[in-house]
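Following up on my earlier thread - several people asked me to post the actual chain instead of describing it. Fair enough. Here it is, all 365 residues.
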Amino acid sequence: MILEKKFKNKKVIVTGHTGFKGVWLSTWLNMLGAEVTGISLDNLDEPSHFTIAKIGNYVNDLREDIRNSKQLEKLILDIEPDYIFHLAAQSIVRKSYDDPLCTWSTNVMGTINVLESLRKLSKKCNAVIITSDKCYDNVEWVWGYKETDAMGGPDPYSASKGAAELAIKSYIKSYFPRNSSSVRVASSRAGNVIGGGDWAPDRIVPDCVRAWSKNNSVELRKPNATRPWQHVLEPLSGYLVLATSLDDNLEIHGESFNFGPPAQQNQSVLELVSTMSEYWDQVKWTDISDKESGPYESGLLKLNCDKALSLLNWTAVMGFNDTVRMTAEWYRSYYKDDTDMMEVTKTQIQSYVLAAKDSGLDWAQ
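Reply from S.P.:
Thanks for posting it. Predicted structure:
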C-alpha cells in the first residue's frame, strides 16, 4: 500500500495527538508502521478517546504546551521528524469568545512556534499544518470557498485560524524557498468533522450522544445551520496524501488545500440529528433557536475541493448516511460493556481504507 511504504519506520510528530482528530491520525499512522510522537496538553476531554483506546501504549506520549517555544523547539530538534502534522489548537468557537487570549496565542503563536522550530531543523521534513474551513472570511456564499479566497472571520476562533494561515504563508515565502528548502510545508483546511471519540463541549454529535445515553433531549441552538459534514477519516486521508505528495511533487510545497465532502453533502444540523436517529434508540431533540442568545455562529459554509482532486487525486469516499452510520456505531460500541475501543477504531479505519480502495483512489491501493 502506498501510504504504508511512505510512513513505515518514519519518525512522525503529531501535535494535538490527544484530541479528536489527533487520536484517529495517531492510530492510523501506527497502523502504517510509523514511529509516532505526540505532543499535547494534559487537559483531556472526559470521557477521552485517547484514554479508553489506550493510545499511550502505541505512541511516544509527550505533554507540552505548543506556546512554550523553547521546549517545543527542543523536542522537535531532538526527535528530527520525517513528518509533522500540526493539529494542536483551541478548537471550540464558543470557547473562543470566553477566552480569546488563549485562542489567539494557541492558534497563531503555537503555529508560529512550530514553523520557527522547523526553520532550525537541518534535515528533510514534510509538515502539514492544519487550520480550519473557518479561516475564510465567510459571507455565507452558496458556492464553496476556494483556497485563494480571503481569510478572516467575525469570531476569535475563525479570525485566529485566518491569521495562522497568513503566518504560514509568510514563513514559507521567507524561510522555506521552493527550490532549496529541505523542509516542505503545506496547510490544510477541513470541513465540519464528525466521528467516534469526539467528546468536546458545544459540538452537535457529542451533545447528542451524551443526552441520548441518559434518555434526555438534546437542545438544538441552530437547527437550520448547514455544514459540510464529513467523517473524521476523510480529511485525515487528505492530510496523509498531502504529506506524501510533498515528497513527490515540489509544486505542492507552499500550497493550501481544502478537504471536504461533495458540495451537495451540505446538510443542516436538523438533518444530521434526524439521520442519527435512524441508528440510535430513544432519540429526542428540542429546538431552542428562538431562545438562543449566544454568540454569533455562521449559518452556511461550503468548501470547494477541486484543487485536492486535481493536484492530489483526493476526493471524499463516504456519503452522508454512511458518515452518520459509522459515527453512531462507534458511540454505540462505547456504551456497550467490555468493548475494546482500540479494535473498534482500527476496524473503522480498515473499513474506510477498503472503501477508498474500491473507489479506485491511488493512495488506498
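The mean pLDDT is 92. That should answer part of your original question.
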